[in-house]
Amino acid sequence: MSDNKIYQASTTAPVNIAVVKYWGKRDAKLNLPTNSSVSVTLSQSDLRTHTTAACSAAFGPEDTLLLNSSPQDVSGARTQACFRELRALRSALESADPSLPKLSSLPLRIVSENNFPTAAGLASSAAGFAALVRAIANLYELPSSPTDLSRIARQGSGSACRSLFGGYVAWQMGSKEDGSDSVAVEVAPASHWPTMRALILVVSAEKKGVSSTSGMQITVATSELFQRRAEVVVPAHMKAMEKAILEKDFETFAKVTMMESNSFHATCLDTFPPIFYLNDVSRAAIRVVEDINKKAGKTIAAYTFDAGPNAVIYYEEENADAVAGTLKSALGELDGWQGREIKAQSTEGVDA
Ligand code: DP6
């Protein structure tokens, strides 16, 4: 291209927290999971990635990515897969309409900012890759749906495919070898169950010890519990969870969420050598949630933990004092945690 015009587009993407967990890859190259998963998308006002994608003949020659002002390596297979797939879609549009500018051959300059600690077990890679894929899709003016883009974002980071939607989202594991049916779909929009809330207890904002990517690969290779989880436990949890969401049945939602978290962390412990993501503060949070539910005489709070010690507690708005209030005062006496209350869902996924 002869001119040095800069083309650009921006977007934001939310974090999601799984209530049925993805843990295990059946194909590491295509990033295909061993089981389906479900998540709740959190409000963007508290946790989100903002990304601007630009391209120009004046840049380059390499593609670049800045995250919170630090240059990132974009040569990894996952980022490259996202760039390649998005460029191929743009290139198809350019071939069909020769009047379009040839953006697919220009170097990309991506700038991302998180408004929360990166890699602190707060699903930063999910929002990060969802925003990256959506920003480039916007730049390239691709007519792709969130589900189409989820297939690409999945290759950046599995959990990212679920951040293309707001509300309640399922990542269907799919069965095709090429991964074309391993995509995210909406279970219900945020407006379906607007009273859902989440409290994130930031036990530690440090980078996690064992990354999800390597942790789950060691689990698949060594855990005996893992196979049962993938084949029996998760399919049952998926069914119960989707039904609980559609029926707004908080008690079932909460029980499945907690049993899922426990099953996932049991599998981590059954990995050899074992992976410990929970710490003493995490376990104290579990006990406080149990006490809250006992005192209420029904299940009004649910805990879940990803690959780190930070707790996410789900509850309904009407129980905010009983849940968030009790947790803050009970755990506030312990060292090493900061409470942070956030609304559990956004009204939308990434900005189109
Ligand atoms: C425990 O999506 O970070 O948060 O695909 O290797 O990037 P990669 O893994 P990642 O794993 C998330 C694991 C989890 C559970 C979940 O979000 O479903």
UniProtKB/TrEMBL annotation:
<dbReference type="InterPro" id="IPR005935">
    <property type="entry name" value="Mev_decarb"/>
</dbReference>
<dbReference type="InterPro" id="IPR053859">
    <property type="entry name" value="MVD-like_N"/>
</dbReference>
<keyword id="KW-0067">ATP-binding</keyword>
<dbReference type="InterPro" id="IPR020568">
    <property type="entry name" value="Ribosomal_Su5_D2-typ_SF"/>
</dbReference>
<comment type="similarity">
    <text>Belongs to the diphosphomevalonate decarboxylase family.</text>
</comment>
<dbReference type="GO" id="GO:0005524">
    <property type="term" value="F:ATP binding"/>
</dbReference>
<dbReference type="GO" id="GO:0016126">
    <property type="term" value="P:sterol biosynthetic process"/>
</dbReference>
<keyword id="KW-0456">Lyase</keyword>
<keyword id="KW-0753">Steroid metabolism</keyword>
<feature type="domain" description="Diphosphomevalonate decarboxylase-like N-terminal">
    <location>
        <begin position="13"/>
        <end position="184"/>
    </location>
</feature>
<protein>
    <recommendedName>
        <fullName>Diphosphomevalonate decarboxylase</fullName>
        <ecNumber>4.1.1.33</ecNumber>
    </recommendedName>
</protein>
<keyword id="KW-0752">Steroid biosynthesis</keyword>
<dbReference type="GO" id="GO:0004163">
    <property type="term" value="F:diphosphomevalonate decarboxylase activity"/>
</dbReference>
<keyword id="KW-0547">Nucleotide-binding</keyword>
<feature type="domain" description="Mvd1 C-terminal">
    <location>
        <begin position="198"/>
        <end position="352"/>
    </location>
</feature>
<dbReference type="InterPro" id="IPR029765">
    <property type="entry name" value="Mev_diP_decarb"/>
</dbReference>
<dbReference type="InterPro" id="IPR041431">
    <property type="entry name" value="Mvd1_C"/>
</dbReference>
<comment type="pathway">
    <text>Isoprenoid biosynthesis; isopentenyl diphosphate biosynthesis via mevalonate pathway; isopentenyl diphosphate from (R)-mevalonate: step 3/3.</text>
</comment>
<keyword id="KW-0756">Sterol biosynthesis</keyword>
<dbReference type="GO" id="GO:0019287">
    <property type="term" value="P:isopentenyl diphosphate biosynthetic process, mevalonate pathway"/>
</dbReference>
<keyword id="KW-0444">Lipid biosynthesis</keyword>
<dbReference type="Pfam" id="PF18376">
    <property type="entry name" value="MDD_C"/>
</dbReference>
<keyword id="KW-0443">Lipid metabolism</keyword>
<dbReference type="GO" id="GO:0005829">
    <property type="term" value="C:cytosol"/>
</dbReference>
<dbReference type="InterPro" id="IPR014721">
    <property type="entry name" value="Ribsml_uS5_D2-typ_fold_subgr"/>
</dbReference>
<keyword id="KW-1207">Sterol metabolism</keyword>
<dbReference type="Pfam" id="PF22700">
    <property type="entry name" value="MVD-like_N"/>
</dbReference>
<dbReference type="InterPro" id="IPR036554">
    <property type="entry name" value="GHMP_kinase_C_sf"/>
</dbReference>
